[in-house]
Automatic annotation (TrEMBL):
<keyword id="KW-0460">Magnesium</keyword>
<keyword id="KW-1003">Cell membrane</keyword>
<dbReference type="GO" id="GO:0005886">
    <property type="term" value="C:plasma membrane"/>
</dbReference>
<feature type="transmembrane region" description="Helical">
    <location>
        <begin position="279"/>
        <end position="299"/>
    </location>
</feature>
<dbReference type="InterPro" id="IPR045863">
    <property type="entry name" value="CorA_TM1_TM2"/>
</dbReference>
<keyword id="KW-0406">Ion transport</keyword>
<dbReference type="InterPro" id="IPR045861">
    <property type="entry name" value="CorA_cytoplasmic_dom"/>
</dbReference>
<keyword id="KW-0472">Membrane</keyword>
<comment type="similarity">
    <text>Belongs to the CorA metal ion transporter (MIT) (TC 1.A.35) family.</text>
</comment>
<dbReference type="GO" id="GO:0015087">
    <property type="term" value="F:cobalt ion transmembrane transporter activity"/>
</dbReference>
<dbReference type="Pfam" id="PF01544">
    <property type="entry name" value="CorA"/>
</dbReference>
<dbReference type="GO" id="GO:0015099">
    <property type="term" value="F:nickel cation transmembrane transporter activity"/>
</dbReference>
<protein>
    <recommendedName>
        <fullName>Magnesium transport protein CorA</fullName>
    </recommendedName>
</protein>
<dbReference type="InterPro" id="IPR002523">
    <property type="entry name" value="MgTranspt_CorA/ZnTranspt_ZntB"/>
</dbReference>
<feature type="transmembrane region" description="Helical">
    <location>
        <begin position="311"/>
        <end position="331"/>
    </location>
</feature>
<keyword id="KW-0812">Transmembrane</keyword>
<keyword id="KW-0813">Transport</keyword>
Length: 337
């Protein structure tokens, strides 16, 4: 889908669809998941080659940040979709010249809608292609900041779930009765899945920040005269660079917190495993003395003193019970069970 925008808001693009030139005052050409036909229409109207999705997905810096022969710039970066229910990375492209800004995207990003509203309402500088480019980058950075703030809140809730994890109580019970191993296992699995989802989301935000972190200084340092901006735009580039750097630091702290929570969850799992092994160890130790006594009195020798006792059988049973209870008592005194 093609949408055209100028300093005063949306521009009628019927002429472009009919195969004519670009409408007057159209500065920003926004392509949402463009078809080959739409890309050819833009190329015919502006003389700007629209990069394909495959080209925008290239990972090397030389492909993501390029100077064009006409003095413009071709820029690309992965960008999250800002949909927390299905956070994904999609390629995002910019072709920036002195006269026009062409944006290519493959997801409906709310930051772009905000920019279009700001341009229509004259909220900020939006006269030139560079002005609109800066507006887009600013809104993308704001969107990434909002996403990181939401993730920080999610990590706080996740931390509460981990450190308030009580394996000795059933979910929803107030009597402290011990939950089943299956319930505890499912709870720990949910924690690990939550940590994994947060880790994947942070990795995608990190990739988006890295792309913008490379784009901003590249545009600032690349042919400012050819793009038609001067010293008045320089503070905006500097502010964007500082904002991205601060978000990068914040994301690093979030990643460290997530790693700490992962270690804590794995520690809980180790405790659960140790508890299981401890139970098995206690059972095996408790079962050894009775087995020894029963095997000793089960030997079929002719001369056994206890064989003729009237109370030999109760004596044997009592000795077996005592040999089983004594280790349990010792374990209880030492606090092992």
């Amino acid at each position: 889908m093609i949408s055209l925008h100028g300093p005063h808001g949306p521009v009628d693009h019927g002429v472009l669809k009919a195969g004519g030139g670009l409408p007057e005052h159209a500065v920003w050409i926004d392509l949402l998941d463009p078809t080959e036909e739409e890309a050819r229409q833009v190329e015919a109207a502006t003389g700007i080659r629209v990069p394909s999705r495959a080209a925008l997905s290239e990972v090397e810096s030389s492909s993501r940040l390029r100077r064009l022969k006409n003095g413009g710039l071709s820029l690309s970066s992965p960008m999250i979709t800002f949909d927390r229910t299905d956070l994904a990375l999609k390629p995002l492209g910019f072709v920036l010249t002195k006269e026009h800004l062409v944006t290519i995207r493959f997801a409906d990003l709310r930051s772009y809608e905000t920019v279009k509203t700001r341009v229509a309402e004259h909220d900020g500088d939006c006269t030139t292609s560079v002005d609109i480019f800066l507006l887009v980058i600013e809104e993308l950075v704001d969107g990434l900041a909002d996403t990181l703030e939401e993730m920080s809140s999610d990590l706080g809730q996740l931390s509460t779930r981990i450190f308030d994890f009580d394996p000795a109580a059933k979910p929803g019970s107030d009597n402290g009765s011990r939950g089943s191993p299956k319930r505890r296992d499912l709870a720990l699995r949910r924690l690990l899945r939550s940590i994994g989802r947060q880790g994947k989301s942070l990795a995608k935000v990190r990739a988006s920040l890295l792309g913008l972190e490379r784009i901003v200084p590249f545009v600032k340092d690349s042919c400012p005269q050819a793009l038609g901006f001067g010293e008045e735009e320089s503070p905006r580039f500097d502010t964007l660079s500082r904002d991205i750097a601060s978000l990068d630091e914040f994301e690093t702290r979030q990643s460290e917190t997530l790693q700490f929570l992962l270690d804590a969850a794995l520690g809980l799992i180790n405790i659960e495993q140790n508890n299981a092994f401890r139970v098995l160890t206690v059972v095996s130790v408790v079962g050894i003395p009775p087995t020894l006594i029963a095997s000793m009195y089960g030997m079929n020798f002719k001369h056994m003193p206890e064989l003729e006792w009237a109370y030999g059988y109760p004596y044997g049973l009592a000795l077996i019970a005592l040999s089983a209870l004594l280790p349990i008592l010792i374990f209880r005194i030492k606090g092992w069970v």
